[in-house]
Amino acid sequence: MKIRIIGAGPAGLYFASLMKRQNPNHDIVIHERGPRGATWGFGVVFSDRALEFLRADDEEMYQYLAPHMETWPNLTIVYNDTTIPITGNGFAAIGRLHMLQLMYAYAEKLGVQVQFDSEILSLKDEKLAGADLVVGCNGAFSWVRAENEDKFGTIYDWRPNKFIWYGTTKAFDSLSLTFRETDKGVFCAHHYRFAPDMSTFLVEVEDVTWKNAGLDQMSPEDTIRYCEKVFAKDLDGHPIVSNNSYWRNFPAIWNQHWSFDNVVLMGDALRTAHFSIGSGTRLAMEDAVVLAKVFKDTGDVKAALSRYQELRQPPMKKIWDAANISLRWYEDMTDKMKRMSPVEFAYSYMTRTGRVDHAEMRRRDPNLAAAFEKLHPELAAK
Ligand SMILES: Cc1cc2nc3c(=O)[nH]c(=O)nc-3n(C[C@H](O)[C@H](O)[C@H](O)COP(=O)(O)OP(=O)(O)OC[C@H]3O[C@@H](n4cnc5c(N)ncnc54)[C@H](O)[C@@H]3O)c2cc1C
Question: How remote is the CA of residue 127 from the centroid of ligand 1, in Å?
Answer without folding.
Answer: 22
